[in-house]
Amino acid sequence: FTLCERSTRVPFIIHAPRVTRENTRTAKPVGLIDLFPTLNDLCGLPTVANLDGQSLRPLLRDPSVAWEAPALTTHGRGNHALRAERWRYIRYADGGEELYDCTTDPNEWNNLESQSEYAAVKTQLAHWLPKSDAEAKRRTTKGVPARRAP
User: Fold this and answer.
1) Which of 43, 56, 105, 119 is the most exposed place for a label (fewest CB within 10 A)?
2) How far is CA 58 from CA 42, 61, 100, 119, in A?
3) pTM for the structure as a whole
4) How large is the C-alpha radius of gyration of the chain?
5) By the 8 A CB rule, do 68 and 58 touch?
6) Nearest CA-CA partner of 87 in 53, 119, 121, 59
C-alpha cells in the first residue's frame, strides 16, 4: 500500500539457457510487467502487440546494455512510482511529487522534488508515466454489484 522503495522491490532471477551467462547480474530496474514479454520472447512465440512491458532478453544477454525504461509501480488510480538506476520519482493523483537519489539516499528520507536543480530529472522520468489509467472496476459478488457503505 505504498510506492516506497522497500515495499516495491522483489527478487527477480532468470536463467535462460543459451542466453544468460553464469554469475551475471544487473542493477537496471525492471518490472514484473516485463515477465510475460520476456518469456514470450525466450520461447520464440509471436510478439503480442500493445503490451505495457518489454522483453528483458537484451539485459539477459548483456547486463551492461543501455536500458532507458525505468520500472513502473502503480498503487491505485493515478499514483505511480518510477525507479531508474539512480532515481525514484513518485507522482500522486493529487499532483504531489517525490524524488529520491537512491545512490545517496537509499532510505528515501530526503525528498528532492522541490529543488530546482533536479527539475530536468523529474521531467525526464515523468516522460515514462502512464498517459492514462485503467478504469476502476466495481467489485461484484456472484453477479451482484457490491454495495457502497453509506
Assistant:
1) 43
2) 11, 5, 27, 30
3) 0.80
4) 18
5) no
6) 121
Residue 93 amino acid letter: A
Which of 26, 105, 23, 36 lies closest to 66, judged by CA? 26
Q: Which residues pair with 72 in a beta bridge?
A: 82
**Alpha-helical segments (H) within 18-135:** 35-42, 57-61, 119-126
Under a CB-based contact definition with an 8 Å cutoff, are residues 65 and 58 in contact? Answer: yes
Q: Which conformational region is residue 58 in: left (phi greater than 0), alpha (psi within -120 to 50 degrees), or beta? A: alpha
Altogether, the residues listed in the chain come to a count of: 150
Q: How far apart are CA 42 and CA 52, in angstroms?
A: 17
How does pLDDT run across 52-87, given as a tens digit for each residue?
889 999 999 999 999 989 999 888 899 999 999 999
Q: Is the Cα torsion angle 59, 30, 54, 69 positive or negative in sign?
A: negative
CA distance 146 to 126: 35
Please tell me what DSSP assigns to residue 134: P
CA dist 113 and 96 (Å) reads 9
Q: What are the φ/ψ torsions at residue 17 (nearest 5 degrees)?
A: -55, 140
